[in-house]
Design brief:
Layout lengths: L13 H4 L12 H9 L8 H4 L7 H9 L3 H11 L3 H7 L6 H4 L11 H11 L15 E5 L3 H11 L4 E5 L8 H4 L8 H13 L3 E3 L10 H7 L4 E4 L5 E2 L12 E3 H9 L17 E5 L3 H12 L4 E6 L10 H10 L2 E4 L1 E8 L5 E14 L5 E5 L5 E4 L2 E4 L3 E2 L3 H4 L26 E3 L2 H4 L4 H18 L6
Parallel strand pairs: 1-2, 1-4, 2-3, 4-16, 6-14, 7-8, 7-14, 8-9
Antiparallel strand pairs: 5-15, 10-11, 11-12, 11-13
Helix pairs in contact: 2-4, 4-5, 5-8, 6-8, 9-18, 13-14, 14-15
The structure holds flavin-adenine dinucleotide (FAD) and iron/sulfur cluster (SF4).
The site of flavin-adenine dinucleotide has 40 residues, from helix 9, helix 14, helix 16, helix 17 and helix 18.
Length: about 450
């Protein structure tokens, strides 16, 4: 059994799924999960764990799973990861734990992510209240994305009273408003949030830290002992090309928020979205893949990725590119938009692009794309979505004296534990690193929680 191939996770048929928001990957059956878990060698020096930013005891949870001790497996994961249903779905495991698994040298690595997802889904919502006795301290958290949620969970587990302030009307950050339901169902995020509520975490929505109340007010008037800032990097960047202000142009964040959070796909939605026939997305990351596949699900006839390098350099997960292709997405690689051409009413109707070729490597180590003279071409386009990255959300830093930021507007931290230049204020996740990953944001939230406990004299390193 041990050197057998990895058990694949069943997926919905591409034709059927390309028009619905149902989850693409269906999850393992019990026999599939246990079978996959039994492939694990239970290494004495498990390299897989080195690849996990939150150090889940991977062999231990897999062993319990292989023996059908599902709750014990869940408890082991939960010890270090408060959002396993999320991470099992969206973490880039192929670059992390799975890339280091010893079985990968000669065959398929263990499907750690699929197993994590199985254990989490099996235990979803089945737990009692887990509120810890109070230690008499209270901490505020700005932002309810994975960084804020991980920080909240870690502190609540140790008896700290935690209030999470969220600017939007829903909790979860990008997990709820960004990543579409066909990859991460909102119900999975909700179940993990409910668990935090059972631990005593209080959530206040429609509360913008820096506007509804300042950090100073929260600390000095409301008596919070510390604040963790996990406000994310939700500010879109746009290319400087003619026509970019036209009707029918969206940032990927706005487009996905309208669909995921405001349910714009529903007839009569109060926050509608243009349902284009020819959707063109500029970019090559996970965000671009999510946007283009969403375009299809809203009924587009064709949906195209325009990316200036080759597929090899695309930052999106290989699995996401594969799924997009299977669903019929077109890829215009080595191409860059030059201009949007508009109709008489100011709506985008075509995008003029130019072919690119790869030159010398740039600072990122990737070969720099250069335009090929005279290679312009046009694509029909009535919805143009920009997915070329985002910037730090500036509201908290601009409104907080003494909270320093770097040139990019990211909050500066002065050590590896999320301490900032302002006393009692900690930060982590995309607001510090710029757009990154769920698991890195969670790791940062957890590290900051440890620092907070230490600084409050609650005995953590
Ligand atoms: C479409 C999309 C797809 C992605 N796919 C993946 C993937 O497959 N795998 C992966 O690992 N990562 C993925 N990412 C990246 C990942 O989601 C982020 O790195 C992660 O969510 C960052 O977490 P965070 O907690 O720092 O910030 P966020 O998730 O951005 O959460 C920040 C929260 O703070 C709130 N906020 C902002 N300002 C304030 C304020 N002043 N007061 C109160 N609240 C405030 C925001 O409303 C938001 O809810 C994706 C991102 C996007 C946009
Ligand atoms: S490295 Fe692979 S085989 Fe070894 S313990 Fe980790 S998951 Fe199991």
């Amino acid at each position: 059994m041990k050197n057998s191939p990895r058990i694949p996770m069943p997926e919905r048929n591409p034709r059927e799924r390309a028009r619905t928001f149902d989850e693409v990957k269906k999850g393992y059956t019990e026999e599939e999960a246990v079978g996959e878990a039994k492939r694990c060698l239970q290494c004495k020096k498990p390299l897989c764990m080195k690849g996990c930013p939150v150090s889940i005891d991977i062999p231990a949870f897999i062993k319990e799973l292989s023996e059908r001790n599902f709750e014990r497996a869940h408890d082991i994961i939960k010890n270090t990861n408060s959002l396993p249903g999320v991470c099992g779905r969206v973490c880039p495991q192929e670059e992390q734990c799975e890339s280091l698994c010893i079985l990968g040298h000669k065959g398929d690595p263990i499907a750690v992510g699929n197993l994590e997802r199985y254990v989490s889904d099996r235990n979803m919502g089945g737990h009692e209240d887990t509120k810890m006795p109070s230690v008499g301290r209270k901490v505020a958290i700005a932002g309810s994305g994975p960084a804020g949620l991980a920080c909240a969970g870690y502190l609540a587990k140790r008896g700290v009273a935690v209030t999470v302030f969220e600017a939007l009307h829903e909790i979860g950050g990008v997990l709820i408003y960004g990543i579409p339901e066909f990859r991460l169902p909102n119900a999975v995020v909700q179940a993990e949030i409910d668990e935090l509520k059972r631990m005593g975490v209080v959530f206040e929505t429609n509360f913008i830290v820096g506007k509804t109340a300042s950090i100073s007010e929260l600390l000095d008037e409301d008596g919070f002992d510390a604040i963790f800032v996990g406000a994310g990097a939700g500010f879109p960047r746009f290319p400087d090309i003619p026509g970019i202000n036209a009707n029918g142009v969206y940032s990927a964040n706005e487009y996905l928020t309208r669909v995921n959070l405001m349910q714009a796909w529903k007839e009569g939605s109060k926050t509608p979205v243009l349902k284009g026939q020819h959707v063109v997305v500029m970019g090559g990351g996970n965000v671009a893949m999510d946007a283009v596949r969403t375009g299809f699900r809203l009924g587009a006839q064709d949906a195209t990725i325009v990316y200036r390098r080759t597929e090899h350099e695309m930052p999106a997960r290989v699995e996401e590119i594969h799924h997009a292709r299977e669903e019929g997405v077109d890829f215009e690689l080595l191409a860059n938009p030059l201009e949007l051409l508009l109709d008489d009413e100011g709506f985008v109707k075509e995008v003029r692009c130019i072919k690119m070729r790869l030159g010398e490597a740039d600072a990122s180590g990737r070969r720099r794309p250069e335009p090929v003279e005279g290679s312009e071409f046009t694509l029909p386009c009535d919805v143009f979505i920009v997915a070329i990255g985002t910037k730090a959300n500036p509201i908290v830093s601009r409104s907080t004296k003494g909270l320093e930021t770097n040139k990019k507007g990211n909050v500066t931290i002065i050590d590896d534990w999320g301490r900032t230049t302002r006393d009692k204020v900690y930060a982590g996740g995309d607001i510090v690193t710029g757009a990154a990953t769920v698991i890195l944001a969670m790791g940062a939230g957890k590290d900051a929680a440890k620092a907070i406990l230490h600084d409050l004299g609650l005995n953590e390193d």
